[in-house]
Amino acid sequence: MSTPTAPAVETDDRTGTAEDHVTPAERPLFIRFAAEILGTFLLVFIGFGVTLYAGVTVNPDEGAKLLAWGAGVIVAIAVIGHVSGGHLNPAVTLGAALTGRISWADILPYWVAQLIGAVGAAALLFVTIPTALATASGQGSTRSMFSTNASGIGENSTLGRLSGGEVSSDLVQVLLVEAIATMLFVAVALAAGRGLRRGVLSGPVVIGLAYAGLTVATYTLTGGALNPVRATAAAIFSESWALGDLWVFWVAPLLGGAIAGLMFTVFAPEPLAEEDTYAWDDEDEGDDEIDEDFTDETEVLDQDVESDDSPVVLTEDEATPERDDAFTEDYDVTALDDEATETETVDVDAASPEAGAESTDDGEPDERETPRA
After folding, report:
1. Basic and acidic residues compositional bias: what residue ranges (predicted)?
2. Residue-wise pLDDT tens digits, 264-296
3. What Cα–Cα distance (Å) separates residue 118 from each residue in 97, 111, 193, 217?
4. How far apart are alpha carbons 114 and 77 in whole angstroms?
5. Domain extents for the chain?
């Protein structure tokens, strides 16, 4: 079928033609690669930028600091979501591959791009933080500042640091919580990210709020990374223990992302291919409906034409006697009128045969007198 031009369509929050909602073709891989670098850079720069400086410049609330990560997700996805899908997270990329939204060959380039963006943002912050600032804040060094934002287990977990080592989390707890939280986040990202390629801006807000809420919920036990490249960026510039615990924060999020992707593959009510084809499919369906309506109307018209062309044969019984009677009455009335006119003419002539002046052939009256008796 040729590319259709669908009629105007209206939805809950948009009005326009179907062409307004058609998903652009997928961008080349190197463009999506660059977009993921930029998006992850924005995410980590905003998130770590707020949490690193908040304890020094303002009197922070821990929850408010963590909400900065949600804001970072919203901004980053709004900027690059229509280009690459706005994954920003290897777990989301894995879930997208499992649901068929990207090819398996794109996974590694996406992961490399996300890692470059995250580490690049952390490196920029690391080299720009004044050394005296770390001392003034009581951290002692810039690496110590990053360590407060790194994810760990046992006494290196957020819970262990905040309690001075009296309470800590074990490996199973961290793996379980991080995997489940990441699974929930990837599920939201896959569900709300279906319109990102078409520039629908409600998706970034939903995804960002989900990430902020889950980060706050898991921060005390696991550090609330839910993102392997975020954990890697913090670990590289933190104290040595962070790199030793880093493997946990790759395994658990990827496991959660895989579970979310498989769940969507099995239980999703709609096909999960990327949005590139959805709008065209909708237009094709609309065009098919239009074609069917047009075909039905054409068939009706053809039937009417066929019925008009077919000869009509009426029997004597089917003839309308009322019409014949009316015609006969009209004829009789006309005949009576003619007879009445002739009768009047004859009577006038008979009544006065000698009256009036007779006209001559040239139209002048005859002046001859009637002889007297």
Report:
1. 11-21
2. 888 765 554 444 443 444 444 445 555 555 555
3. 21, 11, 21, 22
4. 13
5. 24-275
* Per-residue tokens: 247: 């493997």
Strand partners, 365: 359
Structure tokens, 352? 């006065």
Task: Give this prediction's pTM.
Answer: 0.63
DSSP state of 369: P
Entry field: residues in the chain:
373
CB contact at 8 A, 110 and 62? no
CA distance 114 to 37: 5
Superfamily grouping for domain 24-275: Glycerol uptake facilitator protein. (1.20.1080.10)
d(CA 208, CA 250): 21
Exposed (0-12), middle (13-18) or buried (19+): which is 310, by Cβ within 10 Å? exposed
Longest dimension (CA), the chain: 170
